[in-house]
Amino acid sequence: TFAGRCLTAARRAWQYLQANPSIVPTGGFKNPSGTGTGEYGDNNDSDERLWAAAELYETTGEAAYRSYFESHYNTSGLFTSSLGWPQVGPLAQAAYLLGKQTDASASIKTQLQNGLNTYCGTLVSIATQDGLNVTLRPADYGWGSNSGALNNAVLLILGYIVTGTQDYYLTALQQLDYILGCNRIDISFVTGVGAAHTMNPHHRPSYSDGNVEPIPGLMAGGPDKYLDNDILKANFTSTTPPARCYMDDWRSYASNEIAINWNAPLV
User: Fold this and answer.
1) Residue 213: left (phi > 0), alpha (psi -120 to 50), or beta?
2) Could you report how far apart the first and last alpha carbons of the chain are, in Å?
């Protein structure tokens, strides 16, 4: 019953998108006036539309959704970036590539597989050149860098499922190693996991509950070479190695914040 309600809502949402081909609201999402929290703004919803089409096609098998996907799947390239809230195109492409509908285009699936294979090969190359086998380049150690490593791991796992390439599997595993302590900080970034782990996350319930130990099972954002808060600026400089720009301090939201979209690839 619940699945039926969800499908009905998804169909209605698609009808709305078809009736409104430009992004709504104009210019994309903006926080309401007076809102003090972060704004997850996005002025391009073509990737979200593509993902909706891919999932509706996989769910229903209907030609309209397949046609939309097959007309738009390569608008921004094939697996040209990792996953993240601003870019869900790879999720759309993966949904079609791994889909079970029998009338999906074999040619498009081959293109998608080749694109995924190329991207995973690039990630393996980056890891091979890193002392601890991390798939992050120096510039990638920004706000939420840990999620970047793990989102890369998700694509590597998909690449392994599709191609059977063992290097993809091993490199994905090394990203988990990095999160759980094989890093330049020598701690597990997941609260409650490991002998040394994040103790003071930017997480209001953990800070306020009166317990020394934080709520367990939450991953901190990780090193931020761009020093996006005062705590980081006070302890590091532009010459600090990017992977060391981390403070286990509840005030360091740019390195120690807890966010659901970062923890999702950990799970």
Assistant:
1) beta
2) 27
Tens-digit pLDDT profile for residues 36-93: 888 888 999 999 999 999 999 999 999 999 999 999 999 889 999 899 988 999 999 9
Place of tokens 């317990």: 211
- Specify whether the CB–CB gap between 21 and 72 falls below 8 A: no
How is residue 171 written in tokens? 């490199």
For residue 104, the one-letter residue type is A
Provide Rg for the chain, Cα atoms.
Answer: 20
Global pTM exceeds 0.85: yes
Task: State the Cα–Cα distance between residues 30 and 27, nearest whole angstrom.
Answer: 8
Angle, vertex CA 77, rays to CA 73 and CA 78, nearest 5? 75
Contacts with 22 (C-beta within 8 Å, 6 or more apart), sequence order: none
Distance CA 49, CA 44 (A): 10
DSSP code per residue over 55-100? HHHHHH--HHHHHHHHHHTTTT-SS-S--BTTB-HHHHHHHHHT--
Q: What percent of the chain has pLDDT over 70?
A: 100
Q: Over the range 17-42, which residues count as b (16 or more CB within 10 Å of their CB) and which as e?
A: beeeeebeeeeeeeeeeeeeeeeeee
